Amino acid sequence: MKIHEYQAKELFRKAGISIPEGKVTSSAEEALNIAREIGLPVVIKAQVHVGGRGKAGGVKIARTEDEVVKFASLILGMDIKGLTVNKILIAQAVEIQREIYLGVITDRNSNRPVIMVSTEGGVDIEQVAEETPEKIHRFKVDPIYGLMMHQAMNLSFNLSNKIEEVRTVAKTLMKLYKSYTESDASLAEINPYVLSSDGNFYAIDAKVVLDDNAIFRHPDYEEMRDLSPAEKIEHEAKEKGLSYISMDGNIGCIVNGAGLAMTTMDVIKHFGGEPANFLDVGGSSDPEKVKNAFNFILMDKNVKSIWVNIFGGITRCDDIATGLVEAIKNKNINIPIVVRLTGTNENEGKRIISESKLDIHSVKDMEEGAKTAIKLCKVLD
Amino acid sequence: MGVLVSKESRVLVQGITGRDGSFHTHFMKEYGTNIVGGVTPGKGGMKVEGIPVFNTVLEAVEKTEANVSCIFVPSRLASSAIFEAVDAGVDLIVVITEGIPVRDMVSIMRFIEERGSRLIGPNCPGIITPGECKVGILPTSVFKKGNVGVVSRSGTLTYEIVEIITETGFGQSTALGIGGDPVIGTRFVDMLKLFKDDEETDAVVLIGEIGGSDEEIAANYIKENNYPLPVFSFIAGRTAPPGKRMGHAGAIISGGSGTAEEKIDALKDAGVRVAEIPTDIGKFLKEEF
């Protein structure tokens, strides 16, 4: 789960990391009140779940009250990489002397949390990794003992030669690691961590990604969930046990299993078609899920044909067929439907479909399925 | 004799009294898997499918000498069940459960480093040695004994490709899904090593997907070690958009890495033939043998 900068900063603030004073709002008027409270100049920052906000014009420094209102109005409602800005953070502007990068990430290759630090703060860490990899210093943490102070110090000596600064950065790393583990994050990042001209360090930007599998341990995090319209649909699908992602094409797909669902999209593309979605009905065998899957696909008005591609394992083909027939009968679907059923209870499934007397195109394998679905959506064009 | 499980494997089912646990215990037993016991705390003394249920893994191992455990325990309790199996000294632990927090998996892998069990999964369909033993939920009808080792990050896509292998006239020495999560126990490289030393495996089919860099690491291993067996591969997710989690927690293109192209390039560079569509795997095998 992605959370906003202001929410990530709140997690860090609770861990004792110093954050410039700031508040979030959805109105330009309120922005002015906040700016008066904090004192000018302030930074106005778009709160959207995407990187590169600065380059897109979503971050501005306001030095006067007029500028606060002007920039707040400009940024609110702005479109950044397809996402609408509904919230802005008004934060105390900090005079930057030096910027560094501090991050913790779960490393898939070593199965360990890895601390990363760099003198190159304020830029995308992936860019640093590509251009000057020698400027990133890493340390794999033993999850049993956690990060130790001397390890944090060792890392911090790469960033400064002043002992007071090294100590401050090391302490912040300890707090960042604690926040990362306690919140079940897969990424916790301060970029940049800034040495200000007042001699203090501040976390100017914060990024946290929470592990979806662990949200159950943090029921209070649910209220941090802020979904874009597209994500809302995906989340709704998830609550019904479906994994759904909308795409730009016109062939709707209903598949069991994530790998097979991706492959179904790939095979459609391979034969010259365009998939309208990724949809995994999951491993269980509930006819209701198939009906729900149809609901999501039919919301997409671009869909010209639907391909149901099922390889029965735990999922039983007869259950899928039952759900399919009910869905078509209830919804009066007039889009052509291609069905491929293989595996557990395949014959019963095929019998249910043929006895329904519905106009369903049964195919024997993926290749035939893709070709038929493509042909049928072209007929409609 | 598969590389991980065989007729000799003595299998325990953790979560045997649950809906999925009891259902799949039935099918594993029917396939010929030697299931010696089950574990559900508080249900010791019961029987499921004629199999004795114990309260703890420790007791089950003492009484049955089980050396494999298949875990169906629900996600909130699953990490504790894995720790318990490792602590009881079970050699091979197969975790079917989906949705285990990543932080728990990090701790589990650290514990395993010390204790030396092998973990498959989590969020995986399990392992099969066709004709001998199945540990997990794989549909047995598509499998046939043969000389192709199959390792995959997916479930149903594995069945799809195995069916193609079987219909082309080949069979499998061992086939398994290693799971779709970011932190998993056994990885592609581990399986490549096992297949290399297995007399019954003459070729390897590696089924990958977007996200992470396990495919690239496998490609590097194949290249550097002049891997002796032919390896064929399929990578799912060529059409997947960046930043979207494609069902599996691990299947996500992030920060411009983990794309299908990168994986395909790395594998091709290591001499692996990479299929455009699943049926190509059948063609590759025919051409090779």
Q: Please estimate the helix content of chain A.
A: 25-40%
Q: What's the order of the H and E elements of chain B? A: EHEEEHEHEHEEEEHEHEHEHEH
Summed up, the domain count of chain B is: 2
Distance between the termini of chain B: 22 Å
CATH topology of the largest domain in chain A: Rossmann fold
Measured on Cα atoms, how large is the radius of gyration of chain A? 26 Å
Average pLDDT number of chain A: 94
Protein model, in words:
The complex is a heterodimer of chains A (381) and B (289). Chain A has 381 residues and is α+β, with helices and mostly antiparallel strands. In chain A, helix 2 packs across helix 3 (65-75) and helix 5 (149-156) packs across helix 6. The longest helix of chain A is centred in the middle third of the chain and has 20 residues, at 163-182. In chain A, 38% of the residues lie in helices and 25% in strands. The mean pLDDT of chain A is 94. Helices cover 35% and strands 22% of the residues of chain B. Chain B has helices spanning 19-31, 57-64, 75-87, 102-115, 156-167, 188-196, 214-224, 260-269, 279-288, and strands spanning 11-14, 35-39, 47-48, 51-54, 68-71, 92-95, 118-120, 126-129, 133-136, 145-152, 172-177, 203-209, 231-236, 273-274. The interface between A and B is large, with 52 and 61 residues.
